[in-house]
Write a structure and sequence with these properties.
Strand content: 15-25%
Structural class: alpha/beta
Radius of gyration: 19 Å
Shape: globular
Helix content: 40-55%
């Protein structure tokens, strides 16, 4: 039976590279590009069809930062499919990133340069804003919209006859000290992206605790440092031109600089080929690239506590209930 693969944020960067690599692995799948911008999604679909003639690729409009859009997309998907085998929760934003230039230049010529580029710790801040649903935009897009989508698609994902996989694109920037259970939307801080990625790590752990018995498994991936539109938005283009030689040099000493979307998608593709029951629910699967350009995957235990993950899941369930009640009132 034809496997169904859904990828959010599939029109560019790691999402598009993943789609290309999955089709190169198995061109018989049905691939659904779940994207906010239909024009870009159609361009991505055309690229995939040109590379893999006869590939079964469709488009689903969804803005995971909008609950209304997520609910409509879920409705469409439930009408279209009887089951979904893989959901790649890849869409994400890092709005208005700012670099602490003092920290950047001091770190550039220190022993901390590799860690600084790999994690962005102490380097990046972002300006967040509220969505129409009254949620912080980064949290809504990177975490909650995907959570609501999963909840809506549960009938297609939890079937006894076969397993399904949720695969989250996380980050090395997912840090415990950027996240707080009392401020999980990160209203008060300046690192909403880091907070949101740590939140996805927690959520994946919690979902495994509650959904494995129903045949649904969740995994988390770190693509490494990848040059995408999101990355290029952090610094002016001339800065990237200046520091790229340094980054290639650093790559000799660290395997986290995957740099290209193709390389960054390594762990995402690797999980596509694994039996989910065999995976470690507490590990993050990292895409690594050696200085010789060889790609490989390595699991690394996440800095998460299962109790915290369960509390966070309950907070999301409470928020989901509140948002649904609000949505019904507006209708």
């Amino acid at each position: 039976m034809q496997r169904v693969v859904l990828v959010t944020g599939a029109n560019s960067g790691i999402g598009l590279a993943l789609c290309e690599r999955i089709l190169s692995e198995d061109s018989t799948i049905h691939l659904c590009l779940a994207c906010r911008n239909l024009q870009r999604a159609e361009a991505a679909r055309t690229t995939l069809i040109n590379s893999y003639p006869g590939a079964d690729v469709c488009i689903q409009k969804v803005d995971v930062g909008s609950i209304t859009s997520v609910l409509q997309a879920a409705k469409d998907l439930k009408e279209r499919y009887r089951r979904i085998d893989y959901v790649y929760l890849n869409a994400g934003i890092m709005p208005n990133p700012r670099v602490n230039m003092k920290a950047f230049f001091s770190g550039l010529f220190s022993r901390k340069v590799v860690r600084m580029f790999a994690t962005g710790e102490g380097l990046l801040t972002q300006e967040d804003k509220l969505t129409q649903d009254g949620l912080q935009e980064v949290f809504a897009t990177n975490v909650f919209g995907h959570f609501v989508l999963i909840r809506e698609l549960e009938p297609l994902l939890t079937q006894s006859i076969n397993t399904s996989q949720l695969i989250w694109t996380s980050s090395s920037n997912a840090r415990r000290n950027a996240f707080s259970l009392t401020d999980y939307q990160h209203n008060q801080g300046q690192e909403p992206y880091s907070s949101s990625k740590y939140a996805t790590d927690l959520l994946s752990v919690a979902l495994n605790c509650y959904c494995n018995k129903q045949g649904l498994y969740s995994s988390v991936v770190c693509p490494g440092l990848v040059m995408t539109n999101l990355t290029y938005g952090i610094l002016p283009s001339f800065f990237w031109t200046l520091i790229m030689p340094v980054m290639w040099l650093i790559r000799v000493f660290t395997n986290t600089f995957t740099l290209s979307p193709y390389n960054g998608a390594e762990a995402l593709l690797w999980l596509f080929k694994q039996k989910p029951e065999s995976l470690d629910p507490l590990a993050k699967y990292h895409s690594f690239t050696s200085w010789l350009g060889q790609n490989y995957v390595q699991p690394i235990k996440m800095d998460v506590e299962e109790e915290t993950a369960e509390i966070f899941l309950q907070k999301l369930l409470d928020l989901e209930k509140k948002i649904r009640e609000k949505t019904r009132c507006h209708c």
